[in-house]
Design goal:
transmembrane helix, Cu-R_CopD_dom, single chain, membrane, mainly alpha, elongated, transmembrane, Copper resistance protein CopD
């Protein structure tokens, strides 16, 4: 039963993370680029970040728990194992997400570089959707 609760919490956090980035990318980013207004992104981020960042943290914690449960031999890196293959892909996506976030936070946002930040936002959104797809693939028997 505890595992099912963890999975549910993971799905809710994924909904917040991915949904927030889809809203940003499709709803706010085009307007910010058209008006060349960095403030539109800042305004969205100031409201989303207190929800989005805890969701990302919850995703990592619940993801590690599920890794231990579903792939206890994960570190053997047996890519023939269904869950290991999916989890390796998810960890690669996580590394890219964190790298993009750090770069944006410390370089692009302070310099207010909207066009480069837009590329980061689009990349993080695509990665978020790939996270969802990979989780779906792992749970549905494998599309990867």
């Amino acid at each position: 039963m505890f595992l099912k609760i963890v999975i549910f919490i993971h799905i809710v956090a994924a909904t917040i993370w991915t949904g927030g980035h889809l809203v940003l990318t499709l709803g706010f980013l085009p307007k910010a680029l058209k008006q060349r207004d960095f403030g539109i992104i800042e305004n969205f981020e100031s409201k989303y970040e207190p929800i989005g960042m805890p969701a990302l943290l919850i995703l990592v914690v619940t993801g590690v728990y599920m890794t231990v449960h579903y792939a206890p031999d994960f570190f053997k890196m047996d890519m023939a194992d269904h869950y290991t293959r999916h989890l390796v892909f998810k960890f690669i996506l996580l590394i890219f997400t964190l790298a993009l976030a750090v770069h944006a936070r410390f370089f692009l946002i302070p310099q207010r570089r909207l066009k480069l930040l837009a590329i980061h936002i689009l990349a993080v959104t695509i990665i978020a959707v790939l996270f969802v797809f990979t989780g779906f693939s792992a749970r549905s028997g494998g599309l990867l």
